[in-house]
């Protein structure tokens, strides 16, 4: 039995003796969320591939409080169900990949898919252990993706402690993942053909002052890579409605276990100096955010080392007994350049990015927030000509969000996103890609 499954069983067994205790129900929350997504991806130069698909889904969340006593027990439940309303990928076939929904054997989207999950939680003082298969970590070394219809979920255990003033300590181990467009669990991987049995991590966020936060995290994706992350966040209050924020991030990633020697554990992210997808990477970024009233201006720069691309969890190439990719891929990265289509994280990539957003609340239209961005990546190392090949790519995008502020459908949210991506990398099949997404989100609190 997996360690996380054992922990969940033990905690759930203890919990049944305390469910009537005050706090478990009184402090609980339950909600039903709906999301409808229209997803259009035009890969104009990739053999005429064109995806236009509409899906809708429901997500139920129950978050209990904790039983009373020195040690408190709780239980979180989650269920998601997705429905295909129409469309798909054209042309399609057995080798089709779809990042929105699972596929039948002929490459067409399935009609429905879903999953259920649960997390048991134990709390002592200011320390909490959560174990189960509905975990959604949001950490510098691992961000659960929620860019399509339903969020990615992980199985394992996460420990969070705030026993030290102004310090949050986090540690955990994950061993399985279920993708954003899948109803099947798989091992955790980083683009290789085989998955890993373990993703371990430990880290700390130290709020040195009210304006300065320092971060350090260490993670290990067994048989793929070990990674150290250092972060600095500083906010300078210029005036009551004016701030200047500095956000510095640095990742150092090195090979682990079978990576670099076994073809099944290759890390695939463009050029690789070590051969067999051996991980050897440094990535740093600096972003400066100026806020004035409803205006937010962001300007930054990011650099990926020449030896290999940025290392991160991505199950895109894992193939199991079904013999095909079924939505396991789709990763988020803790980088400002993790944009709508591209992440600008290839070997040698030197990226300058800018973003602007405006909150219309100051003009009497609360809930309306448009934004734009542009990123230019240069000096990307190509695998076809490793010694001299350097290539460029860019992405631009616009986004418009509006949330109803009152009435029977208060908090109903609409989000329209449009992005264009271009690259001249010779080994990249899709060099021109245009993407449109339209989301309708609503959450109803049951209690």
Description:
This protein has 447 residues and is an all-beta fold. The chain has a single domain (3-445), classed as Porin (Beta Barrel). Helix content is 3%, strand content 52%. It starts with a helix and ends with a strand. It has one helix spanning 3-15; strands at 29-43, 49-63, 71-90, 112-124, 127-135, 138-139, 142-143, 153-161, 167-178, 185-186, 199-207, 212-221, 225-239, 242-255, 280-292, 295-304, 350-358, 368-381, 390-403, 413-423, 432-445. It is built from 1 helix and 21 strands. A hairpin with a 2-residue loop joins strand 15 and strand 16.
Summarize the structure.
With 447 residues, this protein is mostly beta strands.
What CATH architecture label applies? Beta Barrel
CATH fold naming: Porin
Helix content: under 10%
Estimate the strand proportion.
over 45%
Write down the domain tally.
1
Oligomer state equals: single chain
Tell me the series of helices and strands, N- to C-terminal: HEEEEEEEEEEEEEEEEEEEEE
Largest sheet: 18 strands, antiparallel, barrel
CATH superfamily (homologous) name: Porin
What is the level 1 CATH name?
A: Mainly Beta
Cα Rg: 22 Å
Indicate the structural class: mainly beta
Q: Point out poorly predicted stretches.
A: 14-20, 320-324
Overall morphology? globular
The total count of helices amounts to: 1
What's the end-to-end separation, in Å?
35 Å
Number of E-type strands: 21
Q: Calculate the mean pLDDT score and round it.
A: 89
